[in-house]
User: What shape does this take?
Amino acid sequence: MAMQVPEVCSLCVSASFESSAEARHVDARISPVLLVSMSGGNPHKLTKEYEESEEGSTVLGSPKIAGTRNTNDPDFNSQSSCESEVQQVGWEVPILPVCTEVVSQMAQVAKQVRPLSSSGLEFVARLQDARQNHGTVDLMQSLNNGSFVVAKRMPNWWMAMDDDEFQKQHSNSAERPWLDIGVIKYLESRNFPYVCKAHGVFRDAQFTYVISSLAEQGDLFKWCNQGPLPGPEREHALRPVVCQLLHAVQMLHDLGIAHRDLSLENILLTGGQEFPQIKIVDFSMATCSRQCCNEPCGKKSYKAPETLVVDKPYDTFLTDSFALGVVLFAIGAQDYPWLSTAKGDCKMFDYTVKHGLQAYLAVRKVRKSKGERLNHVFSKEFANLLEGLLCMDPDGRFTLGEQCWSTDFSRLRTSVWDMPWLHVHV
Assistant: This one.
């Protein structure tokens, strides 16, 4: 289905949204204090973005990450120009205890892999492909109590025995499945409530199965198809979910982890429709390094522009903020803002860089409307929130209110929590 494009972007067509009904995995432990329902209105279909995350990047514990280098690397004591610049701009070094704990969790899980025959689970249906992991996401059922869980099924040749072996065999992979498991276990140990419930790792002769609980409502992409059309009623309905999401990533950062692949597909919903509760999944590109270089992780539409600049370090917390801006735009407009943030790849993005987000909203049409522009359906307060999160200059981008900003008085920044839109009574 073709994407509605503004006149300034007549060459930028076919945004890759497609309808999706796959279930994802989460558990429910969030209080519904900030939640309201996403009810009313007719479904407004989207088309799904099947972008692959950037390959060739490295993540937690990799020698290529500034400040998280492998001490076994013969070049450990040498300093790259990128790392030198990181020191010059005064960014903090990675939170090494966090790195150590995640690595420890990965090693522990790898030692506790059990035979699939002992799981008491049987296959029910395939939910979707997990292409970058050469596997599938399957629905399985417990033979003991009949409950349903999700299994990410990956071939043993891909998973290897542990993360060390995986990195040796797949050194250029953007995905690190053991890292995903390790980060989730670390976050669970810190009582972080916005991740799925891990039920263990199992293996048979051919496959490794990472088991977690089922997301009854699927991912945030599916949620975008529901509820009112863009406008005041939709903003009222999505505000509590947005508050949850911003708080979740704020907490994640305060625990020393940057996600680096936030997207509609990696944010899941569970619980009842009246009080949906979010969970964040897929930490396979996460890092505990506050700054990275030459690592443009994530999907094309969500990448902060500074991540694409060669040999220039970027703040991983602020790149997560940019990705959240794309998520908020998408759930508010029921459409992506652009196809890519690479210079010259998408005229919609290039127009925004040149003229600013407010000017872009004034020319961008609402999908399936009679020519309405987004600045007519977005409230001023919501547009201001988007503008701060999607600021092209990371120095001016909104933070999520993380502790690191409140304790560094030389770098005081505007936080999303300063914005009136988040405080409207629901």
Observations:
- Strands lie at 114-115, 121-130, 135-142, 148-155, 198-203, 207-213, 267-270, 277-280, 291-292, 314-315.
- Residues 1-94 have pLDDT under 50 and may be disordered.
- The chain has two domains: 7-23+30-49+218-423, 81-213.
- The radius of gyration is 21 Å.
